[in-house]
Amino acid sequence: MGSLIDTIGNTPLVEIRSFHSNPKVKIFAKMEGNNPAGSVKDRAALNMIRSALERGEITKNSKLIEATSGNTGIALAMIAGLYGLDLELVMPSTSTRERTLTMEAYGAKVTLLESMETCRDYAEEKAATGAYFILNQFANADNYKAHIKTTGPEIWRDTDGTITHFVSAMGTTGTIMGCSMFLKDKNPAIQIIGCQPTEESSIPGIRRWPEAYLPKIFDASRVDRVIDIAQTDATQRTRELVQREGVFAGMSTGGAFHAALTVANELEEGVIVFIACDRGDRYLSADLFG
């Protein structure tokens, strides 16, 4: 018997079978929606808060603030609640209502602003006053270290070390950075593929950052290839995943899956793992499944 925190990680690896015909190429989804707060961000949220507490950077009396597009905020709200911490989350007003309500249900204060860049500026300005501690997932090494500790080792274990390609959406880039560090250490030949939206596309959870806002934890040398994803392709793949494979996830997962299929169609053999980063039920008020 353990606590809710003990259920974070060790998510299933599920083979996707119905989209290609080459039996020598395997595609697996890492089902991060199975985490208790519903996304891969549970891992980073736990590691950022727990590590800050262990280092004495925050205490039970600290007020936390963080800018988020959704999943990190939900995960932080859950973890902060479990540790009895005060948390304000700053989120773009375009985010789905489900996300705001979920954060508030966990006990967080939610502030809605115009854009993700505006949210980041607001959080940093409030932290600069000294009244708040900003976790700053975009520059916090504990973000990617969560994936060195957990996600990467799980993928290596569950593929018996046979993984040849790892595919992930890129938002804060914590997942792709940490998994790259672990997997490349195990086998430098493993290809790390990141996804970003095309210039005209908007895909929740995947970002094409202006240079000034590029996450400080991002190291381009750790990504072998970046695939641009059109919003229409991400939407189509998201719908196909739930209808043909029962994988109910958000649009960033559809984007990562589209990239995985692109890679699969180029290979004669290989083992591809992509991150299915959250659950689709937090997008029901959007037109993703409409």
Describe the structure.
The chain is α/β, with parallel strands linked by helices and 290 residues long. The protein is 38% helix and 19% strand. It has helices spanning 41-55, 71-83, 97-105, 116-128, 141-158, 174-186, 231-245, 251-264, and strands at residues 13-16, 25-31, 63-67, 86-92, 109-113, 133-134, 165-169, 191-197, 225-229, 270-276. Strands 1-2-10-7-8-9 form a six-stranded mixed sheet. The longest helix is centred in the middle third of the chain and has 18 residues, at 141-158. The N and C termini lie far apart (40 Å).
Short description:
By secondary structure, this protein is an alpha/beta fold.
What percentage of residues falls in helices of 4 or more residues? Answer: 25-40%
Tally the helices. 8
Q: Per DSSP, what share of the residues sits in E-state strands of 2 or more residues?
A: 15-25%
- Structural class label: alpha/beta
* pLDDT < 50 runs, ≥5 residues: none
On the 0 to 100 scale, the average pLDDT is: 95
Distance between the termini: 40 Å
Cα gyration radius (Å):
18 Å
Summarize the SSE layout with pairings.
Blueprint: E1 13-16, E2 25-31, H1 41-55, E3 63-67, H2 71-83, E4 86-92, H3 97-105, E5 109-113, H4 116-128, E6 133-134, H5 141-158, E7 165-169, H6 174-186, E8 191-197, E9 225-229, H7 231-245, H8 251-264, E10 270-276
Parallel strand pairs: 2-10, 3-4, 3-6, 4-5, 7-8, 7-10, 8-9
Antiparallel strand pairs: 1-2
Helix pairs in contact: 1-2, 1-5, 2-3, 5-6, 7-8
